[in-house]
# Entry
Amino acid sequence: MTRLDIRRIITRYINQEASQEELAILYEWVKKGNNKEVFKKLVQADFLVNYEEKPWETEAAFENFLGSIKSKDDVKIRYMGKGTRPQLWKYAAIITIMMGSSLYFLLTQTNSSSVPVDMDSDVNQITLQLDNGEVLTIDPETDGTVQSRNGSTMVSMVKGVLTQKEKKSIGKITNNTIRVPYGKNLSITLQDGSTVMLNSGSSMTYPSSFEGMETREISLTGEAFFEIAKNSEQPFIVKTKRMHTRVYGTVFNVSAYEDDEISEVVLVEGSVGVGRSLEGADHAIQMLQPFQKASNSLENEDLFTVEDVDVSSYISWTKGILTFENEAMEDIIKRLERQYNVRIENLYGELEERRFTGMFDEEDIEHVLRTIQAHTHFSYDKKDDLIIIKKPNKQ
Amino acid sequence: MDQNSFDNEPYLVEQLKIGQKEAYAHLFKLYHKELCNYMTAISGNPKVSEDIAQQTFIKIWDNRSKLQIGKNKLKRYVFKVAYNVFIDSRRKKNKESQLLESLKQQAYLEMTEVDSSLFEERLKMVEREIDNLPEQCKKVFIMSKREGLKYREISEQLHISIKTVEVHMARAMKRLKTQLTSFL
# Structure
């Protein structure tokens, strides 16, 4: 080991290009004699090279800070579903995926017969569309059992969880699509025992049974939190237009809204692989570590960026908590529309770029808007389900 | 000096402890910009650094009742919390990284304790030294450090081997270190 070699390794280390092997060499070297000091001096030299004075928005940051600590004080963590729903926090893997796609587009290679959407169904109701086109309306607040017209399918709602049973004698696997409108949530148990909690404005297409299939595949738009029953012989795959996620562990959260530009997967624990598509041999699959997020955007769907994140804000919705982490108003508006089933028109363009951090627990939309207003000035009018955001009134 | 002024550090710390919002405003005024600059130099990403700064202040707020800050150690405390936030976000857990990261933290914290005029002087000196590097060495160094290119990308653009890039980088770092040692 020459001095040049070690300097080269240190430089590589500082530039974050060192391999695991070089890291080990550096580790042995730095423990000897005065080398710690030499190492530190090089780090400091590098720091000075990198250091530059930039303008920073301290005041905006402070307002943001006030916003976060205020909403922290306000929020009392509410455990979800009055004790009737599973405690999702204890589960292992959680993923969030966002995307834009048409559901039917994804189903090309499963045995779906293209079914026309029943236009008569109320857009504000949760609906379950069966293979034969029949649409059942679901009310998560009321326990009960519904049978399809031809009698082949039984759908029961028990304590907010939907379960579906097919008559064995038919033996044919059918595809179903469940649609949850803005302002509603629904939990559903799949045939393999996996449970899925669907967030507002989401739909999922799934087979009535996974029996005899090589993989368990479902398609999603919107956002959902999954607890997947373990079955290593039959991997579970969540498909969205721009991202496929293969589950090696047990639980994850997928979010995939049509109007979001970014698709993302967040893993809490366990193991998942994410790729543009999982079919074919040479598709790159990105394995995720817990607490990592993989994302791609509309502009470059093949490029996945992996970063470390605080996962709690990505899954707080399962407890009925709305969390914004330094999120742009443009995106916050979309989320408020979904959560509260309102339409928000923003006439104050500059607002879109403003960022906000905060948490809300069961507050109504006006409370949320007023809280954001306290830190970011704007005014708004509310008429029924339409909210118009405008420039702040002159004081 | 007025004992009840935020310029009086023990008073400021007391007010931070009891959650006095103006004290936090003062803390932002004191350290926010510098912390952002500092974390950008370390993380290489202004967005990340703003985020870390924000999390740092929130962390201090959350732990306000337990704040234990030695005499004139507030700045060191703030920057230490920030570096820990940064490291936590990276989650490198093996022993090699832990030792090297803790040495890096010591090195960075030493930098925060330098008098600001001396710090300015050093920054200028670094600029001068970079300017005085041999031509090819300087080119490589600037591509890596200012333009953020990977060694492989530099080697492709300049049609030289990765090894040559490394030698140039190590040489530049050595010269900078030698020049700075008298100061650091």
